[in-house]
Amino acid sequence: MRVTVAAYGELRRYLLGGQPERALDLPDGGTLVDLAHALDTDPDDMALARRNGAVLRDDTPLREGDRIELFAPVGGG
């Protein structure tokens, strides 16, 4: 299945080479863990992932044509 990934902040540079989005092929029934492996990163580097505005869990199956938005962890104090 093919999904589109958009990343924000440092993740855009780190995961997508500065591009705003990237299409990826994943196995049917793939999850965020499969997406992280396709991007050659650790799933923990993707602190927040959304599909259609809804937050995704690591084990949520992705669907053909999904647009996944990734956000980096934010710290502060």
Helix fraction by DSSP (H/I, runs of at least 4): 10-25%
Which class in CATH terms?
Answer: Alpha Beta
Number of strands: 5
- Unreliable stretches: none
Secondary structure layout:
Layout: E1 2-7, H1 10-16, E2 21-25, H2 32-38, E3 48-51, E4 54-55, E5 67-71
Describe the protein's architecture and organization:
This protein is an alpha+beta fold and 77 residues long. It has a single domain (2-66), classed as Ubiquitin-like (UB roll). Helix content is 18%, strand content 29%. It has two helices and five strands, in the order E-H-E-H-E-E-E. The protein has helices spanning 10-16, 32-38, and strands at residues 2-7, 21-25, 48-51, 54-55, 67-71. Strands 2-1-5-3-4 form a five-stranded mixed beta sheet. It is globular, with a radius of gyration of 12 Å. The N and C termini lie far apart (41 Å). The model has no long low-confidence stretch (mean pLDDT 90).
